[in-house]
Amino acid sequence: MTPSPLARRLIDRFQHGMPLCAEPYKAMAETLGCSETQVIDCLQHLQLAGTLSRVGPVFEHSRAGASTLAALAVPPERLHQVAGRVSQYPEVNHNYEREHRYNLWFVLTGPDRAHLDNILQELEQDTGLTPLDLPMLTAYRIDLGFALEATP
């Protein structure tokens, strides 16, 4: 799917931050010269098409609680079932398959490390699989934004 001109402008302008105000979609629309309804419709269309996975904040995990990257080595015939179990936790904000012995990776975020440890223990008990727990030791900031519009 090729993004519409509005979608390209929306992504280019706001992929690194949304307005912090009571009506962010209205402020975005004013910046883009369109209506708030057009912004919301555009975002919904991008999400339904699978082009956009989420709109929301990214928090510095160490200031908002604790987080860890975890992985499981799941037998292929159980992958869908185990991924569904992992996704049942609201603390899971990514859950994806990788081509590796550890083929199911997910990120857990919670109020403290003990909370995350409890979830990892529950998952091990429920699935019989031992999670690989990879807490972040050093943060590296990488700009993952990509320009969609030609720059003059």
From TrEMBL:
Top-level taxon in the UniProt lineage: Bacteria
Ranges for domain Siroheme decarboxylase NirL-like HTH: 8-50
One of the Pfam families matching this protein, by short name: AsnC_trans_reg2
Pathway membership, UniProt: Porphyrin-containing compound metabolism
Keywords per UniProt: Lyase
EC number: 4.1.1.111
Boundaries of every Siroheme decarboxylase AsnC-like ligand binding domain copy: 66-133
Catalytic reaction(s) noted: siroheme + 2 H(+) = 12,18-didecarboxysiroheme + 2 CO2
Listed GO MF terms: lyase activity
Cited function: Involved in heme d1 biosynthesis. Catalyzes the decarboxylation of siroheme into didecarboxysiroheme.
Subunit note: Probably forms a complex composed of NirD, NirL, NirG and NirH. All proteins are required for the total conversion of siroheme to didecarboxysiroheme.
Family note: Belongs to the Ahb/Nir family.
Name recorded for this polypeptide: siroheme decarboxylase
